Amino acid sequence: MIPLYNYDTSDDKALGSYIGFEADGMLAGHSGCDIDYASYPFWLSSESNGAAELRPELCPLGKFGYDARCRGWYADGKAKADSGAGHLHVTSPYLFVGEEERVGQSATSPLMDPNTNEHIGQVLVDYLPNSIFTTLNDTVLAPGGFPVLITPSSDVLGTDTVVGPGFSLDKEGKAIEELVLLDDKLYCEDMVECSTWI
Hints:
- The chain is about 20% helix and about 20% strand.
- It is α+β, with helices and mostly antiparallel strands.
- The strands form 2 sheets. Strands 1, 2, 3, 4, 5 and 6 form a 6-stranded antiparallel beta sheet that branches. A two-stranded antiparallel sheet has the order 7-8.
- Strand 1 and strand 2 (about 25-30) form a beta hairpin.
- The two termini are about 40 Å apart.
């Protein structure tokens, strides 16, 4: 990724790829010719970024210095892997840290020592979801067809739809069966029963 990264100036590529280490919270990686790393010493643990709530022993309120272990992408990805719920965690859109403030998403997966099965850290890829939405909008579908994009797993409210018919990101989340499988409700007494066989 590194040698060709700077030649692609579009937003359709990954913004960067990194590894956040469990031992010391260091974040190492590549994100092109930007200077975001220069701002990391000035990153402040605050209530708004939730760092102190995630790891109060590492990032108490008011502590300066970026620590990957105190970020939601790291903590949620590690927790998902530790619980056995899967090895890929995709975040909801959030405000990225750095000189240029932009909203994006991250995909993260655990980095494990193959000999000891010890958690070494989290591999991270940051990206802008714009290209996904552009691709969905530009896709030619059969008459009556519609694009659907769901997350790998439901959130705590049981919602998993990112894009669906009659649904946009400015509305509350919905479960895929509420958007796409509406007619199937006619054959079920309740949605719990429907959800078990869908």
